Amino acid sequence: MASSPVAPAPSAGSVTALGRQFEELSVGDDGGGGADVGACQPKIETQAAAFLEAHPTYDGRGVVIGILDTGVDPGAAGLQFTTDGKPKVIDIIDCTGSGDVDLSKSVVVEEKDRAAPKVEGLSGRELTLNPEWLSPEANPSGEIKLGVKHAYDIYPRGLVRRLKSERREAWDKEQAAALATLQRAIDAARPKATDAAGRKALENLKKELEQLQAYADQYEDCGPVFDCVAFKDARDGRWRGAVDSAEGG
After folding, report:
1. In terms of C-beta density within 10 A (0-12 exposed, 13-18 middle, 19 or more buried), how is residue 73 classed?
2. Interior/surface letters 142-172, b for 16+ CB within 10 angstroms, e for the rest
3. What is the spatial distance between Cα 242 and Cα 136, in angstroms, rounded to a whole number?
4. What would the DSSP string read from start to end of 63-79?
5. Phi, psi of 143, deg, nearest 5
6. What count of other Cβ atoms lies within 10 Å of the Cβ of residue 134?
7. Backbone φ/ψ region at 248: left (φ over 0), alpha (ψ -120 to 50), beta
8. What is the pLDDT of residues 194-225, one digit of tens each?
9. What digits encode the pLDDT tens for the residues 96-151?
């Protein structure tokens, strides 16, 4: 009986270097603080390392894969870019209903404003719309549906924990800088508090400092808030929408 062909084993040096490279690429945060198991995969024993060394471009480039899963962390380092620098995740569709957006509120853009349309989103931000959305062919009524979505409602728990930690760290740095600035202002005001106006100015600065210090106890992170807009395209009857995931309007 003929035996199955076996790929030649790479040199010891190349195996070690390649294996280490794959282990580093496999390291990722599962969002739950668990131990990484990527390095436990037997890449050398299964000859995956030898195969990719012989065929370095056989890494899935140019292939689009659809995955049905119970949840994914789009912020995981290993899901950001492909080996040739392209975005690894090109679309996410939530079929659970947790990503549904209430679009019961709407606004009508006047004809005189449709060349450079802007509306106020439910977050309070000014949103710049695509003028094509308000063309006579696409949207003769000029109606735009408005919604808002809290990112923490749709992000995986692991991602929410990580974002909250990062955002609190950034907030603490800004808070510390603001406290230091205000304290310097108080120190500079003390020598000038020799009359009623100077004492009042010093007292106001002290109250500002007390209020700023109290913010740390009142801190609550609501997370990113995304404005959502949509309209029904009269050309084909389909709904089209956009999400301001950059929170920039």
Report:
1. buried
2. bebbbbbbebbebbbebbbebbeeeeeeeee
3. 20
4. -------S---TT-GGG
5. -80, 135
6. 23
7. alpha
8. 999 999 999 999 999 999 999 888 888 989 99
9. 776 789 999 999 999 999 999 999 999 999 999 999 999 999 999 999 999 999 99
